[in-house]
Amino acid sequence: MIRLLLADDEELLRSALAALLDLEDDLSVVAQAATSTDAVRLAREHRPDIAVLDLEMPPADGLTAAEQIRAELPTRIVMVTRHARPGVLRRALAAGVSGFVPKTTPAVRLAEIIRDVAAGRRYVDSDIAASALTEDDCPLSDRELDVLRATRTGASVKEIAKEVGLAQGTVRNYLSAAMSKLNANSRHAAAHRAWEEGWI
């Protein structure tokens, strides 16, 4: 029996998926979570074979939860997302994710992927893999990515400066450079674009 943890903040979708996967003779959903924090907590408590995580979960995201789970447990990770961009795929693979599928994947196919991952194999959606081969390189520096990552939380420039350990003026310079490179009209738009591309 393959024991599963499902984590998705969309309760209706999560419950429906849990019901469908529980119909499979060799799959058992042992825990469900609506946040990345609960996903990590329940993984520690139930030690599932596979954690099926949504990329977008509050308060952090599925990748953060995947990193924490993989650091502590042998649980393998399947990431399910609406935002299946190549840069996100690269981050997921770096985080130790074994499966990467779009949310449009039918439950029957997801069950097959879960079995493959449980058997030690990896699965990446073919369209995402093909896109990854043609993805543009990130034009942003590490520091520009740091300040945009902090911007995604809604933090002020003062708070960003404290978080990344820079002066406020330096943070403004990095934000300005990032906005220029991404042709964005605000730091939030730049951060969103960087997130969409999977750079942060």
Structure description:
By secondary structure, the protein is an alpha/beta fold. It contains 10 helices and 6 strands; from the N terminus they run E-H-E-H-E-H-E-H-E-H-E-H-H-H-H-H. It has a 6-stranded parallel beta sheet with strand order 2-1-3-4-5-6, sandwiched between helices. Strand 5 (99-102), helix 5 and strand 6 (123-124) form a beta-alpha-beta unit. Helix 2 (36-46) packs parallel to helix 3, helix 7 packs across helix 9 and helix 7 (142-151) crosses helix 10 (187-196). It is elongated, with a radius of gyration of 18 Å. The mean pLDDT is 90.
Proportion of helical residues: 40-55%
Q: For the residues shown, what is the average pLDDT?
A: 90
Chain oligomer state: single chain
- Broad structural category: alpha/beta
Order of helices and strands: EHEHEHEHEHEHHHHH
Silhouette: elongated
The count of strands amounts to 6
What is the overall number of helices? 10
* Side-by-side strand order of the widest sheet: 2-1-3-4-5-6
Radius of gyration from CA coordinates: 18 Å
How far the N terminus sits from the C terminus, by CA atoms, comes to 36 Å
Major beta sheet summary = 6 strands, parallel
SS strand fraction:
15-25%
Low-pLDDT residue spans:
none
